[in-house]
Amino acid sequence: MVLKALCDYLDREQIRYTVISHSPAFTSQEIAAASHISGREIAKSVIVRLDGELAMAVLPASRHVDIELLGELAGATRIEMAHEPDFHDCFPGCETGAMPPFGNLYGMPVYVAGELTEDDFIAFNAGSHTELIQMHYRDFERLVQPRVLDFAALV
User: Could you give the CA distance from residue 93 to residue 73 in angstroms, rounded to a whole number?
Assistant: First the structure.
């Protein structure tokens, strides 16, 4: 259901994209292996709380969120990782952990790790653990208008 809604949205915006189906995979590294796409180009969505408000941090699968650095760069005084019960209802129709990086469609600010801007393409979960969407990063940036910060750290 989320896949169809995302595809409809991208079609309305005249964005070129590819849907990639793969065997069930739950971690971003498993998704990279199952889809044969570099972990550097798989964009994972991590939900955080900045001063009590939910926000989406989007970064390469091969990295993790430096939570303190993100908070500092975002100008937040309090930052913490959000827990599943905090955000589960914010993403109707999405399997847990498979939220697409379109926080703007869910009323959330989006922070993107600078490394993702260096690649022509990104791929991301499309609401399930078996489907990805791959598209040009520049199209993603135009639609989402994320704040780009360097908060990704090596795993």
Answer: 32
The range of the structural domain enclosing residue 140 comes to: 2-154
pLDDT in tens, 51-78: 999 999 999 998 999 999 999 999 999 9
8-state DSSP, 42: B
Q: How many domains does the chain have?
A: 1
CATH code of the domain in which 82 resides: 3.90.960.10
The C-alpha atoms of residue 38 and residue 148 are separated, in whole angstroms, by: 21
Cα 33 to chain centroid distance, Å, stands at 18
Which residue matches tokens 């005249």?
14
- Within 13 Å of residue 88, how many CA atoms lie on the same side as its CB? 5
Is the whole model's pTM more than 0.85, yes or no? yes
Residue 38 CA to chain centroid, in angstroms?
Answer: 15
